[in-house]
Predict the 3D structure of the following.
Amino acid sequence: MNKDNENLEALSARLISVEEAAELIKIKKGTLQNWLSQGSKFKRVKIGGRTFIDRLEVEDLLQVALSGK
């Protein structure tokens, strides 16, 4: 397997749906969708009409929020 395929597999394993991200952040799905439409710092990936977010970015946001920084 080449390096690009390995990177793609690693990213796809980290992708979570908007619903899952909203649950992790403990906000409503609509609120997260608003953030995304307003240009939040989450990078989005659309696959088959569904939107996914990198779980690591969501976890980073939570860590910053919990640390109070």
Q: What stands out?
A: The chain has a mean pLDDT of 88.
